[in-house]
Amino acid sequence: MQSFFQTLVSGLSFGAVYALVALGFSLVYRTMGLVNFAHGAVLMIGAYVASTFYLSARLPFVAAVPAAMAVTSAVGLVIERVLRPLENRDFDLMLIGTIGAGTVLEAVAILIWSSSGRGVPSPVRTAPLIVGGVRIGTYNLVVIGVVAVAMAALTLFLQHTKRGAAMQAVAMDHEAATAVGIHVGRSNAIAFAIGAGLAALAGSLASPMLYVSPTMGDSLGIQGFAAAILGGFGSIPGAIVGGLGIGVIGSFAAQWFQGYSDLVTFVVFTVLVMIKPTGIFGERTVSRA
Asked: CB count, 10 Å around CB of 115?
């Protein structure tokens, strides 16, 4: 039983990171109807920037992470501005544009930080908590807590601010939103910036648990994308549940099947999606093509 809870805690901490990645995917899709395939690369840039502030500039981790989020949000704004001329004109080119942006960001990361990668020590030195014989890493609790706060803040923004309401109006009908005076381009830019900030937060929190490298965004991006699909693409609650689900499934798969954990995780994911193709909180899909 102790082993079960140990594995569960580990899965929830990684699942929280996947949920952040899924939230970024879902937010952009919910607003623009676009799958941002550069999201994983943006996450990787955020992890590198945070680790640079933390290890090289000697900023405290609590300051390095918001700084990385600000820098990466600016990257998201640049990507959106490049894609804006294609909005509602050539959807396929927009998708290809996000793929190209991801490739460029990986190349930039290699030029700046090299391809060797780096390890990031945990910013929390406190000894693990022992609860009922289960060792709970304090950094794992920090990750879960930070992600919970970020999700609550995003929900409040979307549901209780004029800008959040405008973004949701654009998601439902961008032509009607334009007719009532909502600036669609600005809403899309904010969605990209927030999505990039969430990606940077995910990459920053994951860096002490993983290894920061130019390809780390590929793995986390795929896991986050799967989480978004499992929860229901475009659904904010679905992104949260899907991320936690993928994290827990992956954690138990790693314990029971070791080297085949990724295979087992995606077999389970495939079965679940076959049972409910629209995801757990599946919503009406958005089509701008």
From this structure: 11
